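Weekly modeling sync, notes
Attendees: AB, CL, MP (scribe)

Item 1: holo prediction request
CL wants a bound-state model with nicotinamide-adenine-dinucleotide before deciding which constructs to order. AB pointed out that an apo prediction alone won't tell us much about the pocket. Agreed to run with the ligand included and paste results into these notes for async review.

Input as submitted:
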Amino acid sequence: MSEPKNHWKNFIAGQWVDSVETLAIANPATGEFFATIASANLNDVDAAVIAARSCVNQGLLSNCRPAERTALMLRIADEIRAIAEHAAELVVLENGKRLKDAKDELAEAARYFEYYAGMADKIEGTSIPLGSDYVDYTVYEPQGISVQIVPWNFPVSICARSLAPALAAGNAVIVKSPELTPLAITWLATACQRAGLPPGALSILCGDGPTIGGALVAHADINQIVFTGSVPTGRTILHAAAERAVPSVMELGGKSAAVVFADADLDQLIDSVYWGIFFNAGQVCSAMSRLLVERSIYEQVIERVRDLAAGLTLGPGIDNSDLTPLASATQQQQVLQHCNRAVAQGAQLITGGKIPTSMPGYFFEPTIFCGVSAEMDLFQQEVFGPVIAITPFDTEQQAWELANGTEYGLVAGIFSQNLNCCLRGTRALKAGQVFVNEWYAGGVETPFGGTGLSGFGREKGQEALYSYVRSKNIAMRIAAGSA
Ligand code: NAD
Protein backbone atom coordinates (compact mmCIF):
# COMPACT_ATOMS: atom_id res chain seq x y z
CA MET A 1 0.00 0.00 0.00
CA SER A 2 1.38 3.40 -0.93
CA GLU A 3 1.82 6.09 1.72
CA PRO A 4 -1.07 8.60 1.40
CA LYS A 5 -0.17 12.27 1.32
CA ASN A 6 -1.20 13.93 4.54
CA HIS A 7 -2.82 17.16 3.36
CA TRP A 8 -5.52 17.52 0.70
CA LYS A 9 -7.14 20.53 -0.94
CA ASN A 10 -10.47 21.47 -2.45
CA PHE A 11 -10.91 21.51 -6.22
CA ILE A 12 -12.46 24.74 -7.49
CA ALA A 13 -12.70 25.56 -11.17
CA GLY A 14 -9.71 23.48 -12.19
CA GLN A 15 -7.47 24.67 -9.31
CA TRP A 16 -6.48 22.98 -6.05
CA VAL A 17 -7.40 25.50 -3.36
CA ASP A 18 -6.12 25.46 0.22
CA SER A 19 -7.69 26.98 3.31
CA VAL A 20 -6.55 28.10 6.75
CA GLU A 21 -9.12 25.88 8.41
CA THR A 22 -8.69 22.13 8.06
CA LEU A 23 -10.61 18.96 8.88
CA ALA A 24 -8.76 15.96 10.32
CA ILE A 25 -9.47 12.53 8.82
CA ALA A 26 -9.29 9.38 10.96
CA ASN A 27 -8.71 5.74 10.06
CA PRO A 28 -11.76 3.90 11.50
CA ALA A 29 -9.72 0.73 12.01
CA THR A 30 -7.40 2.47 14.49
CA GLY A 31 -9.09 5.74 15.41
CA GLU A 32 -5.87 7.57 14.48
CA PHE A 33 -5.87 10.72 12.40
CA PHE A 34 -3.72 10.31 9.29
CA ALA A 35 -4.54 13.30 7.07
CA THR A 36 -6.15 16.72 6.88
CA ILE A 37 -8.18 18.42 4.18
CA ALA A 38 -8.79 22.12 3.59
CA SER A 39 -12.14 23.11 5.01
CA ALA A 40 -13.90 25.28 2.44
CA ASN A 41 -15.24 28.72 3.38
CA LEU A 42 -18.06 30.85 1.99
CA ASN A 43 -15.71 32.56 -0.52
CA ASP A 44 -14.92 29.11 -1.91
CA VAL A 45 -18.65 28.47 -2.31
CA ASP A 46 -19.06 31.70 -4.27
CA ALA A 47 -15.98 30.97 -6.39
CA ALA A 48 -17.32 27.51 -7.28
CA VAL A 49 -20.74 28.91 -8.22
CA ILE A 50 -19.23 31.74 -10.33
CA ALA A 51 -17.01 29.25 -12.18
CA ALA A 52 -19.92 26.85 -12.73
CA ARG A 53 -22.13 29.69 -14.03
CA SER A 54 -19.42 30.77 -16.43
CA CYS A 55 -19.13 27.19 -17.72
CA VAL A 56 -22.91 27.00 -18.17
CA ASN A 57 -23.19 30.44 -19.82
CA GLN A 58 -20.39 29.67 -22.26
CA GLY A 59 -22.02 26.32 -23.04
CA LEU A 60 -18.68 24.59 -22.55
CA LEU A 61 -20.43 21.24 -22.13
CA SER A 62 -23.92 21.91 -23.42
CA ASN A 63 -23.04 23.48 -26.80
CA CYS A 64 -20.58 20.88 -28.00
CA ARG A 65 -21.68 17.99 -30.17
CA PRO A 66 -23.13 15.34 -27.86
CA ALA A 67 -20.71 12.79 -29.28
CA GLU A 68 -17.86 14.91 -27.87
CA ARG A 69 -19.42 14.59 -24.42
CA THR A 70 -19.65 10.85 -24.98
CA ALA A 71 -15.93 10.74 -25.76
CA LEU A 72 -15.13 12.91 -22.72
CA MET A 73 -17.14 10.66 -20.43
CA LEU A 74 -15.37 7.58 -21.76
CA ARG A 75 -12.00 9.25 -21.13
CA ILE A 76 -13.08 10.01 -17.55
CA ALA A 77 -14.02 6.32 -17.09
CA ASP A 78 -10.54 5.34 -18.33
CA GLU A 79 -8.87 7.85 -16.03
CA ILE A 80 -10.85 6.54 -13.04
CA ARG A 81 -9.64 3.03 -13.85
CA ALA A 82 -6.09 4.38 -14.03
CA ILE A 83 -6.25 5.86 -10.51
CA ALA A 84 -8.46 3.14 -9.03
CA GLU A 85 -5.78 1.40 -7.01
CA HIS A 86 -4.59 4.51 -5.14
CA ALA A 87 -8.13 5.76 -4.65
CA ALA A 88 -9.37 2.38 -3.36
CA GLU A 89 -6.60 2.28 -0.74
CA LEU A 90 -7.63 5.74 0.36
CA VAL A 91 -11.29 4.69 0.62
CA VAL A 92 -10.19 1.89 2.95
CA LEU A 93 -8.15 4.29 5.09
CA GLU A 94 -10.85 6.92 5.48
CA ASN A 95 -14.00 4.77 5.45
CA GLY A 96 -12.78 1.45 6.85
CA LYS A 97 -14.37 -0.89 4.29
CA ARG A 98 -12.71 -3.98 2.74
CA LEU A 99 -10.11 -3.31 0.07
CA LYS A 100 -11.93 -5.58 -2.37
CA ASP A 101 -15.16 -3.63 -1.81
CA ALA A 102 -13.31 -0.34 -2.24
CA LYS A 103 -11.96 -1.65 -5.57
CA ASP A 104 -15.53 -2.57 -6.57
CA GLU A 105 -16.58 0.94 -5.60
CA LEU A 106 -13.99 2.46 -7.93
CA ALA A 107 -14.99 0.05 -10.71
CA GLU A 108 -18.61 1.09 -10.23
CA ALA A 109 -17.63 4.76 -10.40
CA ALA A 110 -15.96 4.14 -13.78
CA ARG A 111 -19.03 2.20 -14.95
CA TYR A 112 -21.29 5.19 -14.24
CA PHE A 113 -19.23 7.31 -16.61
CA GLU A 114 -19.16 4.58 -19.23
CA TYR A 115 -22.91 3.96 -18.90
CA TYR A 116 -23.89 7.63 -19.18
CA ALA A 117 -21.35 8.14 -21.98
CA GLY A 118 -23.67 5.91 -23.97
CA MET A 119 -26.58 8.21 -23.25
CA ALA A 120 -24.91 11.61 -23.71
CA ASP A 121 -25.69 11.55 -27.45
CA LYS A 122 -29.18 10.09 -27.08
CA ILE A 123 -30.99 12.79 -25.13
CA GLU A 124 -33.57 13.17 -27.85
CA GLY A 125 -36.70 15.27 -27.89
CA THR A 126 -40.03 14.53 -29.51
CA SER A 127 -41.99 16.08 -32.32
CA ILE A 128 -45.69 16.62 -31.70
CA PRO A 129 -48.08 16.80 -34.66
CA LEU A 130 -50.45 19.81 -34.48
CA GLY A 131 -51.65 19.93 -38.06
CA SER A 132 -50.11 21.58 -41.11
CA ASP A 133 -50.17 25.12 -39.68
CA TYR A 134 -47.79 24.33 -36.80
CA VAL A 135 -44.45 22.83 -35.95
CA ASP A 136 -44.13 21.61 -32.39
CA TYR A 137 -41.28 19.83 -30.67
CA THR A 138 -39.87 19.23 -27.22
CA VAL A 139 -36.17 19.42 -26.37
CA TYR A 140 -34.26 18.54 -23.20
CA GLU A 141 -31.86 21.14 -21.87
CA PRO A 142 -29.44 20.77 -18.94
CA GLN A 143 -30.65 22.11 -15.61
CA GLY A 144 -27.57 24.37 -15.29
CA ILE A 145 -25.68 24.19 -11.98
CA SER A 146 -26.25 20.94 -10.12
CA VAL A 147 -25.28 20.94 -6.42
CA GLN A 148 -24.62 17.42 -5.18
CA ILE A 149 -24.31 16.58 -1.47
CA VAL A 150 -22.60 13.24 -0.85
CA PRO A 151 -22.57 10.94 2.25
CA TRP A 152 -19.60 9.01 3.66
CA ASN A 153 -20.63 5.38 3.22
CA PHE A 154 -19.82 4.98 -0.52
CA PRO A 155 -18.15 8.33 -1.13
CA VAL A 156 -16.71 7.68 -4.58
CA SER A 157 -19.46 5.61 -6.18
CA ILE A 158 -22.30 7.79 -4.84
CA CYS A 159 -20.44 10.88 -6.05
CA ALA A 160 -20.00 9.31 -9.51
CA ARG A 161 -23.63 8.13 -9.54
CA SER A 162 -24.87 11.73 -9.66
CA LEU A 163 -21.87 13.39 -11.31
CA ALA A 164 -21.80 11.18 -14.40
CA PRO A 165 -25.40 11.71 -15.59
CA ALA A 166 -25.20 15.42 -14.72
CA LEU A 167 -22.10 15.95 -16.88
CA ALA A 168 -23.45 13.68 -19.63
CA ALA A 169 -26.47 15.97 -19.84
CA GLY A 170 -24.24 19.09 -20.04
CA ASN A 171 -24.56 20.51 -16.52
CA ALA A 172 -21.85 22.05 -14.33
CA VAL A 173 -21.57 20.33 -10.95
CA ILE A 174 -20.52 21.40 -7.47
CA VAL A 175 -19.97 18.48 -5.09
CA LYS A 176 -20.07 18.92 -1.32
CA SER A 177 -18.00 15.99 -0.09
CA PRO A 178 -18.60 14.33 3.31
CA GLU A 179 -16.50 15.48 6.28
CA LEU A 180 -15.60 11.91 7.31
CA THR A 181 -14.46 10.63 3.90
CA PRO A 182 -13.52 13.49 1.56
CA LEU A 183 -10.14 12.25 0.32
CA ALA A 184 -10.73 9.60 -2.35
CA ILE A 185 -13.39 11.78 -3.99
CA THR A 186 -10.64 14.24 -4.88
CA TRP A 187 -9.26 11.55 -7.21
CA LEU A 188 -12.46 11.93 -9.25
CA ALA A 189 -11.47 15.58 -9.81
CA THR A 190 -8.03 14.43 -10.93
CA ALA A 191 -9.57 11.91 -13.34
CA CYS A 192 -11.93 14.56 -14.78
CA GLN A 193 -9.08 17.06 -15.12
CA ARG A 194 -6.85 14.56 -16.90
CA ALA A 195 -9.69 13.63 -19.23
CA GLY A 196 -10.07 17.29 -20.27
CA LEU A 197 -13.24 18.34 -18.46
CA PRO A 198 -13.48 22.15 -18.83
CA PRO A 199 -12.69 24.22 -15.72
CA GLY A 200 -15.82 25.22 -13.84
CA ALA A 201 -17.70 22.09 -14.95
CA LEU A 202 -16.70 20.50 -11.66
CA SER A 203 -15.80 21.80 -8.21
CA ILE A 204 -15.47 19.60 -5.14
CA LEU A 205 -15.64 21.27 -1.74
CA CYS A 206 -15.32 19.71 1.66
CA GLY A 207 -16.56 21.51 4.73
CA ASP A 208 -19.03 21.50 7.55
CA GLY A 209 -22.43 20.27 6.33
CA PRO A 210 -24.74 23.00 7.64
CA THR A 211 -22.26 25.80 6.78
CA ILE A 212 -20.90 24.83 3.38
CA GLY A 213 -23.63 22.41 2.25
CA GLY A 214 -26.20 24.86 3.63
CA ALA A 215 -24.66 27.79 1.72
CA LEU A 216 -24.59 25.80 -1.52
CA VAL A 217 -28.20 24.64 -1.39
CA ALA A 218 -29.41 28.14 -0.44
CA HIS A 219 -27.30 29.89 -3.11
CA ALA A 220 -29.37 32.12 -5.38
CA ASP A 221 -27.64 30.96 -8.56
CA ILE A 222 -27.95 27.17 -8.47
CA ASN A 223 -30.47 25.19 -10.50
CA GLN A 224 -30.68 21.72 -8.95
CA ILE A 225 -29.98 19.89 -5.69
CA VAL A 226 -29.13 16.20 -5.50
CA PHE A 227 -28.93 15.08 -1.90
CA THR A 228 -27.92 11.65 -0.64
CA GLY A 229 -27.94 11.32 3.13
CA SER A 230 -30.11 11.18 6.20
CA VAL A 231 -33.77 12.13 6.55
CA PRO A 232 -33.21 15.07 8.99
CA THR A 233 -30.63 16.68 6.67
CA GLY A 234 -32.88 16.00 3.67
CA ARG A 235 -35.70 17.85 5.40
CA THR A 236 -33.49 20.87 6.11
CA ILE A 237 -32.33 20.96 2.50
CA LEU A 238 -35.89 20.66 1.19
CA HIS A 239 -36.81 23.80 3.15
CA ALA A 240 -33.98 25.67 1.39
CA ALA A 241 -35.06 24.22 -1.97
CA ALA A 242 -38.64 25.30 -1.34
CA GLU A 243 -37.59 28.95 -0.93
CA ARG A 244 -36.59 29.16 -4.58
CA ALA A 245 -38.48 26.13 -5.96
CA VAL A 246 -35.21 24.41 -6.86
CA PRO A 247 -35.78 20.93 -8.35
CA SER A 248 -34.37 18.28 -6.04
CA VAL A 249 -33.54 14.60 -5.92
CA MET A 250 -33.67 13.12 -2.42
CA GLU A 251 -31.91 9.79 -1.78
CA LEU A 252 -32.51 9.20 1.92
CA GLY A 253 -32.41 6.37 4.42
CA GLY A 254 -34.20 3.05 4.69
CA LYS A 255 -35.41 0.23 6.92
CA SER A 256 -35.66 -2.43 4.28
CA ALA A 257 -37.07 -5.91 4.86
CA ALA A 258 -36.38 -9.29 3.29
CA VAL A 259 -39.43 -11.56 3.36
CA VAL A 260 -38.40 -15.22 3.66
CA PHE A 261 -40.90 -17.99 2.87
CA ALA A 262 -40.61 -21.60 4.01
CA ASP A 263 -39.63 -22.78 0.52
CA ALA A 264 -36.68 -20.35 0.22
CA ASP A 265 -33.22 -21.62 -0.69
CA LEU A 266 -31.53 -20.93 2.64
CA ASP A 267 -27.96 -21.06 1.27
CA GLN A 268 -28.93 -18.32 -1.18
CA LEU A 269 -30.57 -16.40 1.68
CA ILE A 270 -27.55 -16.59 3.99
CA ASP A 271 -25.24 -15.34 1.26
CA SER A 272 -27.63 -12.40 0.83
CA VAL A 273 -27.76 -11.79 4.59
CA TYR A 274 -23.98 -11.33 4.59
CA TRP A 275 -24.20 -8.76 1.81
CA GLY A 276 -27.41 -7.28 3.14
CA ILE A 277 -26.30 -6.44 6.69
CA PHE A 278 -22.61 -7.18 7.28
CA PHE A 279 -21.07 -5.81 4.07
CA ASN A 280 -19.68 -2.28 4.73
CA ALA A 281 -20.54 -2.98 8.40
CA GLY A 282 -24.21 -2.51 7.56
CA GLN A 283 -23.68 1.16 6.65
CA VAL A 284 -25.75 0.91 3.51
CA CYS A 285 -28.94 2.86 2.88
CA SER A 286 -30.51 -0.22 1.27
CA ALA A 287 -29.27 -2.63 3.98
CA MET A 288 -31.34 -5.71 4.83
CA SER A 289 -31.98 -4.44 8.32
CA ARG A 290 -35.15 -6.51 8.85
CA LEU A 291 -35.66 -10.19 8.17
CA LEU A 292 -39.29 -11.35 8.15
CA VAL A 293 -39.42 -15.14 8.33
CA GLU A 294 -42.29 -17.60 7.91
CA ARG A 295 -42.83 -19.15 11.32
CA SER A 296 -42.20 -22.79 10.28
CA ILE A 297 -38.54 -21.95 9.47
CA TYR A 298 -38.09 -19.09 11.97
CA GLU A 299 -35.84 -21.00 14.44
CA GLN A 300 -33.86 -22.56 11.60
CA VAL A 301 -33.17 -19.17 9.99
CA ILE A 302 -32.12 -17.68 13.34
CA GLU A 303 -29.64 -20.57 13.73
CA ARG A 304 -28.26 -20.05 10.23
CA VAL A 305 -27.84 -16.30 10.71
CA ARG A 306 -26.21 -16.92 14.10
CA ASP A 307 -23.74 -19.35 12.45
CA LEU A 308 -23.01 -16.75 9.77
CA ALA A 309 -22.28 -14.09 12.40
CA ALA A 310 -20.14 -16.49 14.45
CA GLY A 311 -17.97 -17.22 11.41
CA LEU A 312 -17.20 -13.59 10.57
CA THR A 313 -13.72 -12.22 11.15
CA LEU A 314 -13.63 -8.68 12.52
CA GLY A 315 -10.68 -6.68 11.34
CA PRO A 316 -9.33 -3.88 9.17
CA GLY A 317 -10.57 -3.43 5.64
CA ILE A 318 -7.05 -3.57 4.28
CA ASP A 319 -6.96 -7.28 5.31
CA ASN A 320 -10.32 -7.86 3.60
CA SER A 321 -11.80 -8.93 6.95
CA ASP A 322 -15.46 -9.98 6.80
CA LEU A 323 -16.69 -7.31 9.18
CA THR A 324 -14.91 -3.97 9.09
CA PRO A 325 -15.24 -1.02 11.49
CA LEU A 326 -17.96 1.58 11.53
CA ALA A 327 -16.93 4.90 10.03
CA SER A 328 -16.68 6.95 13.23
CA ALA A 329 -16.88 6.90 17.01
CA THR A 330 -20.19 8.77 16.75
CA GLN A 331 -21.59 6.09 14.49
CA GLN A 332 -20.34 3.40 16.90
CA GLN A 333 -22.10 5.05 19.86
CA GLN A 334 -25.32 5.47 17.87
CA VAL A 335 -25.37 1.78 16.94
CA LEU A 336 -24.76 0.86 20.60
CA GLN A 337 -27.67 3.05 21.69
CA HIS A 338 -29.98 1.39 19.15
CA CYS A 339 -29.00 -2.02 20.56
CA ASN A 340 -29.45 -0.98 24.19
CA ARG A 341 -32.88 0.45 23.37
CA ALA A 342 -33.88 -2.73 21.56
CA VAL A 343 -33.00 -4.78 24.67
CA ALA A 344 -34.90 -2.35 26.91
CA GLN A 345 -37.95 -2.64 24.64
CA GLY A 346 -37.96 -6.43 24.89
CA ALA A 347 -36.22 -7.62 21.71
CA GLN A 348 -34.26 -10.84 22.23
CA LEU A 349 -30.53 -10.44 21.67
CA ILE A 350 -29.15 -13.56 19.97
CA THR A 351 -25.58 -12.36 19.61
CA GLY A 352 -23.52 -9.15 19.59
CA GLY A 353 -24.94 -5.82 20.68
CA LYS A 354 -21.55 -4.61 21.96
CA ILE A 355 -18.38 -2.79 21.05
CA PRO A 356 -15.57 -5.38 21.13
CA THR A 357 -13.25 -4.35 23.95
CA SER A 358 -10.14 -5.97 22.52
CA MET A 359 -9.98 -3.91 19.34
CA PRO A 360 -8.88 -0.34 18.60
CA GLY A 361 -10.97 1.78 16.23
CA TYR A 362 -14.71 1.77 15.74
CA PHE A 363 -15.66 -1.90 15.47
CA PHE A 364 -19.04 -3.29 16.45
CA GLU A 365 -19.97 -6.94 16.95
CA PRO A 366 -22.25 -8.57 14.36
CA THR A 367 -25.63 -8.32 16.03
CA ILE A 368 -28.82 -10.35 15.74
CA PHE A 369 -32.09 -9.61 17.45
CA CYS A 370 -35.18 -11.81 17.18
CA GLY A 371 -38.72 -11.35 18.41
CA VAL A 372 -38.66 -7.79 17.09
CA SER A 373 -42.22 -6.51 16.85
CA ALA A 374 -43.54 -3.70 14.69
CA GLU A 375 -43.87 -1.15 17.49
CA MET A 376 -40.22 -1.44 18.58
CA ASP A 377 -37.76 1.25 17.52
CA LEU A 378 -35.46 -1.42 16.06
CA PHE A 379 -38.22 -2.35 13.60
CA GLN A 380 -38.89 1.27 12.65
CA GLN A 381 -35.60 3.18 12.82
CA GLU A 382 -32.52 3.03 10.64
CA VAL A 383 -29.48 1.77 12.63
CA PHE A 384 -26.79 2.01 9.92
CA GLY A 385 -24.68 -0.74 11.45
CA PRO A 386 -24.28 -4.56 11.44
CA VAL A 387 -27.57 -5.16 13.27
CA ILE A 388 -30.37 -7.33 11.92
CA ALA A 389 -33.89 -7.57 13.37
CA ILE A 390 -35.71 -10.89 12.83
CA THR A 391 -39.50 -11.12 13.05
CA PRO A 392 -41.79 -14.13 12.39
CA PHE A 393 -44.94 -14.07 10.23
CA ASP A 394 -47.77 -16.52 9.70
CA THR A 395 -49.47 -15.54 6.43
CA GLU A 396 -48.36 -14.02 3.16
CA GLN A 397 -50.62 -11.02 3.69
CA GLN A 398 -49.13 -10.42 7.13
CA ALA A 399 -45.63 -10.58 5.61
CA TRP A 400 -46.37 -7.79 3.11
CA GLU A 401 -48.01 -5.69 5.82
CA LEU A 402 -45.01 -6.07 8.13
CA ALA A 403 -42.59 -5.27 5.31
CA ASN A 404 -44.57 -2.13 4.47
CA GLY A 405 -45.02 -1.21 8.14
CA THR A 406 -42.43 1.59 8.37
CA GLU A 407 -42.31 5.15 7.05
CA TYR A 408 -39.47 4.20 4.72
CA GLY A 409 -39.63 2.55 1.30
CA LEU A 410 -36.20 2.21 -0.28
CA VAL A 411 -35.82 -1.46 -1.25
CA ALA A 412 -37.39 -4.79 -0.26
CA GLY A 413 -36.64 -8.45 -0.92
CA ILE A 414 -38.46 -11.75 -1.36
CA PHE A 415 -36.92 -15.18 -0.89
CA SER A 416 -39.10 -18.02 -2.23
CA GLN A 417 -39.10 -20.62 -4.99
CA ASN A 418 -42.75 -19.87 -5.73
CA LEU A 419 -42.86 -17.53 -8.71
CA ASN A 420 -46.50 -16.59 -8.12
CA CYS A 421 -45.79 -15.62 -4.53
CA CYS A 422 -42.75 -13.58 -5.64
CA LEU A 423 -44.79 -11.78 -8.27
CA ARG A 424 -47.55 -11.00 -5.78
CA GLY A 425 -44.85 -9.59 -3.49
CA THR A 426 -43.35 -7.37 -6.18
CA ARG A 427 -46.80 -5.77 -6.48
CA ALA A 428 -47.55 -5.58 -2.75
CA LEU A 429 -44.24 -4.19 -1.50
CA LYS A 430 -43.86 -0.46 -1.02
CA ALA A 431 -40.31 0.21 -2.22
CA GLY A 432 -38.38 1.78 -5.06
CA GLN A 433 -36.71 -1.54 -5.89
CA VAL A 434 -37.64 -5.14 -5.06
CA PHE A 435 -34.99 -7.89 -5.05
CA VAL A 436 -36.06 -11.48 -5.62
CA ASN A 437 -33.76 -14.25 -4.30
CA GLU A 438 -30.68 -12.03 -4.22
CA TRP A 439 -30.18 -8.89 -2.16
CA TYR A 440 -28.55 -6.17 -4.30
CA ALA A 441 -29.44 -7.87 -7.59
CA GLY A 442 -29.22 -5.01 -10.07
CA GLY A 443 -26.49 -2.61 -11.16
CA VAL A 444 -25.74 0.84 -12.49
CA GLU A 445 -28.39 0.15 -15.15
CA THR A 446 -31.29 -0.28 -12.72
CA PRO A 447 -33.18 2.76 -11.37
CA PHE A 448 -32.74 3.27 -7.63
CA GLY A 449 -34.53 5.50 -5.17
CA GLY A 450 -37.20 5.57 -2.56
CA THR A 451 -40.73 6.28 -1.61
CA GLY A 452 -42.01 7.70 1.69
CA LEU A 453 -39.21 8.87 4.00
CA SER A 454 -36.65 7.21 1.71
CA GLY A 455 -37.03 10.15 -0.65
CA PHE A 456 -37.95 10.79 -4.25
CA GLY A 457 -36.37 10.98 -7.68
CA ARG A 458 -34.24 8.22 -9.13
CA GLU A 459 -30.53 7.61 -9.53
CA LYS A 460 -28.97 4.99 -11.84
CA GLY A 461 -30.32 3.70 -15.11
CA GLN A 462 -31.72 5.65 -18.04
CA GLU A 463 -34.42 7.11 -15.82
CA ALA A 464 -31.90 9.05 -13.71
CA LEU A 465 -30.62 11.03 -16.67
CA TYR A 466 -33.96 12.82 -16.94
CA SER A 467 -33.48 14.36 -13.48
CA TYR A 468 -30.56 16.28 -14.93
CA VAL A 469 -32.47 17.91 -17.79
CA ARG A 470 -35.61 20.00 -18.08
CA SER A 471 -37.95 19.87 -20.99
CA LYS A 472 -38.81 22.82 -23.20
CA ASN A 473 -41.58 22.76 -25.75
CA ILE A 474 -41.37 24.87 -28.90
CA ALA A 475 -44.68 25.62 -30.59
CA MET A 476 -44.47 27.44 -33.95
CA ARG A 477 -47.11 28.78 -36.24
CA ILE A 478 -46.25 28.58 -39.94
CA ALA A 479 -47.50 31.47 -42.01
CA ALA A 480 -49.34 30.55 -45.19
CA GLY A 481 -47.21 31.05 -48.31
CA SER A 482 -48.29 33.22 -51.23
CA ALA A 483 -49.90 31.29 -54.04
P1 NAD B 1 -25.96 13.20 6.66
O1 NAD B 1 -27.33 13.61 6.30
O2 NAD B 1 -25.50 13.43 8.04
O3 NAD B 1 -24.88 13.90 5.73
C1 NAD B 1 -24.91 13.78 4.33
C2 NAD B 1 -24.23 14.99 3.70
O4 NAD B 1 -25.01 16.15 3.97
C3 NAD B 1 -22.82 15.27 4.25
O5 NAD B 1 -21.99 15.67 3.17
C4 NAD B 1 -23.06 16.45 5.19
O6 NAD B 1 -21.94 17.28 5.34
C5 NAD B 1 -24.16 17.19 4.45
N1 NAD B 1 -24.96 18.09 5.30
C6 NAD B 1 -25.21 17.99 6.63
N2 NAD B 1 -26.02 19.01 7.01
C7 NAD B 1 -26.28 19.75 5.91
C8 NAD B 1 -27.08 20.91 5.66
N3 NAD B 1 -27.77 21.52 6.63
N4 NAD B 1 -27.14 21.40 4.40
C9 NAD B 1 -26.48 20.78 3.40
N5 NAD B 1 -25.71 19.67 3.57
C10 NAD B 1 -25.61 19.16 4.82
O7 NAD B 1 -25.87 11.66 6.27
P2 NAD B 1 -24.63 10.68 6.48
O8 NAD B 1 -24.56 10.35 7.93
O9 NAD B 1 -23.44 11.22 5.80
O10 NAD B 1 -25.11 9.40 5.65
C11 NAD B 1 -25.89 8.41 6.21
C12 NAD B 1 -27.32 8.55 5.74
O11 NAD B 1 -27.37 8.63 4.33
C13 NAD B 1 -28.16 7.35 6.11
O12 NAD B 1 -29.44 7.77 6.55
C14 NAD B 1 -28.28 6.60 4.79
O13 NAD B 1 -29.40 5.76 4.69
C15 NAD B 1 -28.32 7.71 3.80
N6 NAD B 1 -27.88 7.24 2.47
C16 NAD B 1 -28.81 7.16 1.47
C17 NAD B 1 -28.43 6.66 0.22
C18 NAD B 1 -29.42 6.52 -0.91
O14 NAD B 1 -29.00 6.38 -2.06
N7 NAD B 1 -30.71 6.55 -0.65
C19 NAD B 1 -27.11 6.27 0.01
C20 NAD B 1 -26.20 6.39 1.06
C21 NAD B 1 -26.59 6.89 2.29
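Recorded for review: The pocket of nicotinamide-adenine-dinucleotide is lined by residues 149-153, 158, 176, 178-179, 209-210, 213-214, 217, 228-230, 233, 236-237, 251-254, 285, 382, 384, 410 (CB under 6 Å).
Action items: CL to compare against the apo run; MP to circulate these notes.
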